[in-house]
Write a structure and sequence with these properties.
The longest helix has 29 residues, at 5-33. The protein has helices at residues 5-33, 35-60, 70-90, 94-102, 108-132, 138-155, 157-162. It is mainly alpha-helical and 165 residues long. It is built from seven helices and no strands.
């Protein structure tokens, strides 16, 4: 995104701390709001923040000898923070906790195994293209951010279709 090495490390540390702290919010509101609305609204918010990030990627790229677009960089960092915030509030515990709540006792272990395996597979599917992309390939980075936005959009339909709570 055109940030210095030091600033990238500082932002990464603050982002991890905020991710931890915002995950505590779900503990206090999940019973009051309900699982389905929480998943739906946070999936929509994740989709919106990734779509904005995908749109900003080409704007924020620095020219060969320039500092880049600072406003786009700031909004991009904000979108990354917001995406992690929405994920930690609405979806962080769902992979492990939700299947245990909705499945009968006799199939609880296989259901948790399937949900955990699905979590790993879909995380790999969403994140793996980032390892293949060279930073100079801005079109591919745009596609990767757009892919993540679409995965968030699609995941918003899962609670509507399959959630009994």
């Amino acid at each position: 995104m055109g940030l210095s090495d030091l600033m990238s490390r500082v932002i990464s540390g603050v982002n991890g701390t905020c991710y931890f702290l915002t995950s505590l919010i779900a503990i206090t509101i999940i019973e009051r709001v309900g699982r389905r609305p929480l998943m739906l609204w946070t999936a929509a918010a994740q989709c919106a923040t990734m779509a904005v990030l995908a749109g900003l990627y080409n704007i924020e790229q620095p020219p060969p000898n320039g500092p880049g677009n600072k406003a786009a960089q700031v909004v991009s960092v904000l979108c990354l923070f917001l995406f992690n915030t929405w994920f930690s509030i609405g979806w962080l515990g769902m992979t492990w906790l939700y299947p245990a709540e909705v499945t009968p006792l006799r199939i609880r272990a296989p259901a948790n195994a399937l949900s955990t395996a699905s979590n790993w597979i879909f995380n790999f599917m969403v994140c793996f293209p980032c390892f293949l992309i060279h930073p100079s390939c801005s079109v591919l980075m745009f596609r990767s951010s757009w892919q993540q936005a679409q995965c968030s959009r699609i995941s918003g339909g899962v609670p509507t279709l399959f959630s009994p709570l």
